Amino acid sequence: MKKIIISLLLASIALVSCEKYETYKEVNNDFKANFDAFWKMVDEQYCYLDYKNIDWDAVYDEMLPRVEAAKTEQEFFNVLESSLDYLRDGHVWMISPFKTYSCDTFKIDENGEKYPENFNASVIRENYLKERFVTMASGIVFGEIERDGHSYAYIFYKAFDSFWEAADYKYIEPIIERTEGIIFDIRNNPGGSGEIGLNLAGNWFDEKTHVGYHAIKNGKGHNDYSELQALYCRPTSHKWSNKKTMLLTNRGVYSTANLFTCALKHAKNVTQIGGISGGGGAMPMTHYLPNGWLVVFPANMLFDVNKQHIENGIAPDIEVTCTDEEFDAGVDAIVERALTELMK
Predict the structure, then answer these.
(1) Closest CA to 39 of 79, 96, 90, 72
(2) How far is CA 203 from CA 166, 167, 184, 237, 240, in A?
(3) pLDDT at 110 over 90
(4) Residue 198 DSSP code
(5) Where are the domains of the chain?
(6) In 104-207, where does DSSP find H-type helix?
(7) Res. 130 pLDDT band, cuts 50 70 90
(8) 3-107: which CATH number, 2.20.25, 3.40.50, 3.30.750, 1.20.120?
(9) Which of 51, 83, 267, 342 is paired with 329 by a 20 to 30 Å CA distance?
(10) In terms of DSSP bridges, do strands 93-95 and 19-22 run parallel, antiparallel, or are they unpaired?
């Protein structure tokens, strides 16, 4: 029986955390009945149908002939999979005893082209940090990048899945203190705990700062959701607000990493460089079909301080794209631009 680990985090907005869910035993395997239940479930409870201009009625009409033609569970699963692709939402999953689906269509742009990868970890380690880096047990990679007589702290954070401990800061902060600025790299960070994200972002603030809103889907209508509730970053004991910081992003920056990026838009010393983030401003909720399959999709929404959705990503202050030719030559164009900005 397949299982999924889903993070339900941050009491006020709860993004994604670690609670295990398991599919029920099969109860009703009638494909048409399950499709109708699936369609109604998404229609009434998914929070972004209108915002994303998804014609869910048209999806029903398109998929029904395939449902009626399906002969096996695998074929029926593929129909639901095609339906969920229309949501373009990385917080969408479906689990059956024989297959797991996760949505990655948010990585495809409006022209049907895949967003640039814009990240190569080996290039960073081999051509920028060389031997001057440390990988913490928590997954944090950090060190120094030197350029033209200047030195900058480099921190790569792969996922918001554990609080930064005193030991992490013990080793990282001496580098921050002795260098002239920070390159904080969250490219390909899929998210994790919203609480961890806002807490870490607090390192760059000197006072409590309003950074966004959240709302919860609370009715069957496409636009039925609660009043907006404000989100704040609160300063921590780690004062990084006096260090010029470059935040590196790409389309793989998702969920809590996207919220973190939104929050740091309000830090006076932070500049976002690279590609647009992946988005993901929602709390996944679990649902079961009559046949026992698990379906997960968002039921709340995140907004910036201007009450604009952040579901589709946060645009960088300075857009930079890395090419394969540059990576082959050992060059990371996003890091290079970050260094240029730090040296200004």
Answers:
(1) 79
(2) 14, 16, 12, 7, 6
(3) no
(4) H
(5) 3-107, 121-280+301-343
(6) 121-124, 166-178, 194-201
(7) low
(8) 3.30.750
(9) 342
(10) unpaired
The CA-atom distances, in angstroms, between 38 and each of 4, 56, 83 are 19, 11, 10
Residue-wise pLDDT tens digits, 294-324: 999 998 899 999 999 999 999 999 999 999 9
Identify the burial level of 114 via C-beta atoms within 10 angstroms of its C-beta, where 0-12 means exposed, 13-18 middle and 19 or more buried: exposed
Q: What is the pLDDT of residues 23-51, one digit of tens each?
A: 444 467 899 999 999 999 999 999 999 99
Residues in the chain: 344
Angle at which helices 73-85 and 56-69 cross, to 10°: 170
CATH superfamily membership of 121-280+301-343 = 2-enoyl-CoA Hydratase; Chain A, domain 1 (3.90.226.10)
Q: Quick: pLDDT tens for 250-272.
A: 999 999 999 999 999 999 999 99
Look at residue 104 and tell me whether its pLDDT is greater than 60: yes
Gyration radius of the chain's alpha carbons:
22
**Distance from chain centroid for Cα 300:** 15
Residue showing tokens 């704040």: 232
Q: What share of the chain is helix, strand, coil (3-state, %, to 5)?
A: 30, 25, 45
Tokens matching residue 104: 């990655």
